[in-house]
Amino acid sequence: MTIAVCPGSFDPVTLGHLDVVRRARAIFDEVVVGVAHNSAKHELLPAPRRVELARAAFAGIDGVRVELVAGLLTDFCRDVGAVAVVKGLRGGADFDHELPMALMNRHLTGVETVFVVGDPALGHIASSLVKDVARHGGPIADLVPDGVEALVREALGLPPARGGSYR
Ligand code: PNS
């Protein structure tokens, strides 16, 4: 039984995350989605809310569960018995960002990082861009799983969406 951890801040969970977790699950017997804190970011949604949204998003996928990562990712991986961390790549910039973390995690406990290439049709989706679009009044419903837009808008102090689209 091989277990992998798909970590991230999931602020909020997006359709891109769903794609990566599905790809990870196709390789590993079990995937633990680890909702963690990124010290380089100021998160919009509190951790319990990010966990709640991720649990709803991944609820339909067999062999996937969502847990909060309270400290170091490598300790979490050891606790759940993961043989690898899985991250998605949209392009070279993602790799440049991920490589130092992968090297640090391997330095800490020897855990390997496996990169999967995401669906290019979702390459424009990033949590930071999703929040920026919402913050400026744009529609995000087709970028995130059901229920996420409403909570993002609420966290931003915006009224409920009217269901608009630019296309
Ligand atoms: O979705 P993100 O923000 O790119 O994910 C980054 C994340 C949360 C996976 C990373 O910041 C992390 O692993 N945080 C947990 C604390 C930790 O282990 N930090 C050292 C990373 S080398």
Account of the protein in words:
- Helix content is 41%, strand content 17%.
- With 167 residues, it is of the alpha/beta class.
- The protein has a 5-stranded parallel sheet, with helices on both faces.
- Helix 2 links the parallel strand 2 (30-35) and strand 3 (64-68).
- The protein is globular.
- Bound molecules: 4'-phosphopantetheine (PNS).
- 4'-phosphopantetheine binds next to strand 1 and helix 4.
In short, what is this structure?
This protein has helices spanning 15-27, 47-58, 73-80, 92-109, 127-135, 148-155, and strands spanning 3-8, 30-35, 64-68, 84-89, 112-117. It is 41% helix and 17% strand.
Write the layout of secondary structure elements.
Elements: E1 3-8, H1 15-27, E2 30-35, H2 47-58, E3 64-68, H3 73-80, E4 84-89, H4 92-109, E5 112-117, H5 127-135, H6 148-155
Parallel strand pairs: 1-2, 1-4, 2-3, 4-5
Helix pairs in contact: 3-4
The structure holds 4'-phosphopantetheine (PNS).
Residues 7-9, 36-38, 41, 69, 72-73, 101, 104-105 line the site of 4'-phosphopantetheine (PNS).
Number of strands: 5
Lateral arrangement of strands in the main beta sheet: 3-2-1-4-5
Low-confidence stretches at least 5 residues in length (pLDDT < 50)? Answer: none
- Residues in helices, as a percent range: 40-55%
Rg from C-alpha positions? 16 Å
The number of helices is: 6
Structural class: alpha/beta
Mean pLDDT: 96
Strand fraction equals 15-25%
Output the helix-strand order. Answer: EHEHEHEHEHH
The profile of the biggest β sheet is: 5 strands, parallel
Ligand identities: 4'-phosphopantetheine
Distance between the termini: 44 Å
What best-fitting shape do the alpha-carbon axes yield? globular
